[in-house]
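2024-03-11 09:14:02 INFO worker-7 job=invfold-0412 stage=load source=structure_tokens
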């Protein structure tokens, strides 16, 4: 009798372990045993291999390009958590925003998309960045939105691993590398997209150098220039030839064609009509250079621009809900106004 009881207890113990694993499995999105809004950032990040986006302004309504970036990642990496951290968001406002903003509702409805408040002091705990954060005065920083984003992405990837992407990056196919930096051009790394496993030494060294060489007045000093100078300390960087990637110290330095087939001086080409659209067969994702878009060029339904075609192909829900329907609503509003 005692043996039967022991067998039963073992059975329930194993069953409990399997239940816990189901919460942490990459497949759990299909049969999540609890509503995902009950999960904490740590629980989701501890699943590993997250795709991480950051919004370090106080903005609460994700614009169409941000929505497209997150949606395209969710579609490309369906077995991985896709997380958007928003500085302006609090735990109290999350549920209200879900019904207030179209993009928020759209993204929240995707099974592998999670939207959390960005709490920087928590993010920087147990990293070299915490002391810097406690000493810096954001109101006096010239580039605080960018600098705080540069710091946050390093800390999150160090702690949990995965891939960081800027919110103007449209995913088109999975990135096969685990430890990688993205070349913006030969011998120069961006920090707009990169991926590493948790606790990778390169990221720790980047955080230490971030603090040691901190100068918030120089745009990019804590971002792409940081990544480039740290990569140069361990690798002999040479020019790219063709579409090959470089590799050094088990870090892949990916060809500019992977993410930057249209370089930043030509960023406006995304908002032009092409006689023949490129197929981007050598690319994993496309950086649309929103930082350069000072005139706020946007995707317009029926414009037939390259950007519109990318939205249709890789973030069709964003295109339908935030581009087509928004324009239809505006048209209806103006018609109603004319009849008054």
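2024-03-11 09:14:09 INFO worker-7 stage=emit residues=340
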């Amino acid at each position: 009798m005692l043996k039967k009881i022991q067998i039963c207890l073992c059975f329930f113990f194993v069953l409990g372990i399997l239940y816990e694993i189901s919460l942490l499995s990459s497949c759990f999105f299909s049969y999540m045993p609890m509503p995902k809004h009950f999960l904490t950032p740590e629980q989701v990040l501890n699943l590993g291999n997250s795709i991480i986006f950051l919004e370090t302004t106080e903005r609460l309504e994700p614009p169409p390009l941000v929505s497209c970036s997150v949606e395209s990642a969710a579609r490309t990496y369906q077995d991985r958590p896709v997380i958007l951290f928003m500085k302006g968001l609090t735990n109290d406002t999350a549920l209200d925003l879900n019904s207030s903003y179209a993009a928020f509702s759209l993204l929240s409805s995707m099974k592998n998309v999670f939207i959390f408040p960005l709490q920087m002091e928590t993010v920087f705990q147990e990293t070299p960045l915490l002391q810097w954060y406690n000493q810096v005065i954001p109101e006096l920083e010239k580039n605080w939105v960018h600098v705080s984003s540069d710091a946050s992405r390093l800390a999150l990837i160090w702690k949990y691993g995965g891939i960081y992407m800027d919110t103007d990056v449209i995913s088109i196919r999975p990135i096969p590398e685990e430890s990688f930096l993205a070349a913006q051009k030969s011998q120069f790394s961006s920090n707009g997209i990169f991926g590493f496993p948790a606790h990778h030494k390169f990221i720790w060294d980047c955080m230490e150098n971030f603090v040691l060489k901190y100068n918030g007045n120089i745009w990019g000093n804590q971002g792409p220039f940081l990544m480039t100078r740290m990569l140069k300390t361990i690798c002999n960087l040479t020019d790219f030839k063709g579409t090959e990637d470089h590799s050094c110290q088990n870090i892949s330095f990916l060809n500019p064609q992977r993410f930057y087939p249209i370089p930043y001086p030509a960023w406006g080409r995304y908002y032009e009509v092409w006689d023949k659209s490129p197929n981007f067969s050598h690319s994993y994702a496309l950086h649309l250079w929103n930082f350069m878009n000072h005139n706020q060029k946007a995707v317009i339904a029926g414009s037939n621009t390259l950007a519109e075609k990318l939205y249709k192909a890789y973030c069709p829900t964003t295109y339908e809900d935030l581009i087509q329907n928004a324009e239809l609503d505006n048209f209806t509003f103006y018609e109603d106004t004319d009849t008054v």
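2024-03-11 09:14:09 INFO worker-7 stage=report msg="Residues 1-27, 331-340 have pLDDT under 50 and may be disordered."
2024-03-11 09:14:10 INFO worker-7 job finished
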